[in-house]
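Input sequence (343 aa), recorded before submission:
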Amino acid sequence: MGPHPAVAQIRLGVRQSLRNLAVGDLVLAACSGGADSLALAAALAFEAPRLGLRGGGVTVDHGLQAGSEEQAASVTRVLTDLGLDPVDSIRVTVPGPGSGAGPEAAARAARYAALEQSARAAGAAAILLGHTLDDQAETVLLGLARGSGARSLAGMAPRSGRYLRPLLQIRRAQTSAACAAAGLQPWQDPHNSDPAYARVRVRSQVLPVMEELLGPGIAEALARSAAQLRADADALDDLAQTEAKRLAAGDCPAPADAAGVLPAGALGVLPADALGALPDAIRTRVLRSAAIAAGCPAGALSARHVSEMDALVTLWRGQRWTDLPGGVRCQRQCGRLLFTAGA
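Predicted structure, token format:
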């Protein structure tokens, strides 16, 4: 008699996600103790030795709730009991409201920094994340609400650097069923039911209404749309990268000043006329990449900022500059866009 169908599906997702790793590689499962990441960790513990890999685990204590240290210690015991080794627990400090980031974004940034720290220390080739199809649907709706473009609507990729998401085709109900079948007791994070968080409101209110009014299958449809948009966005990003390299190589060099040199302190420069000749979807991507290269935090660079930079190229009427996150200023001068430190 084989495993429970939900257990089998999750193991298959993990096995497919790990197929390109080398024998002997270490893979860490990021585990909060919730049903999604717990089912993922159990599947890794089963699949890793069968693929010639080493399976480990890591949990991050955000310190945002009373008893978080005890919860982290409980997760490490469960991961160890599953047979994962090494198992790491990292406590992080999440910046408060004055940091400029929302609570969800601040916690996410702290968590990923901790996961990177753990992976480097252990020499891990990959980190498995327990995002499900339901998470993907929520991410697409949140991106739509922000109006932040195709890349945001493309949702989460199955692979991003060392991060792997084997469960993007798995429903949340299946991870709960897999834990029940394996005798695992998931932790119910109170933040996951707190309507103060936008994602919780999407999960508990928006998606159920959509299902009621439009019929079943909304989450699956949103996930399919994300996959299609991701393919389109990847192609556009590749084209934009090619154009950015062409501009940097001097095929369309940015004009220098009267003395033939660029201003001191310039963080980046782009030729305005050459930018203006690019299709909108390519030009805005080049502008975004240039701003990030000049020092703008990617998470803080919004569609509005990109639009204001684009106006310096396509709707220039003598406006002087636009200030960007991270203390970067973009201005048009002598037929070029200059990125400098803001005043």
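Checked by second reader. The first strand starts at residue 26 and ends at 30.
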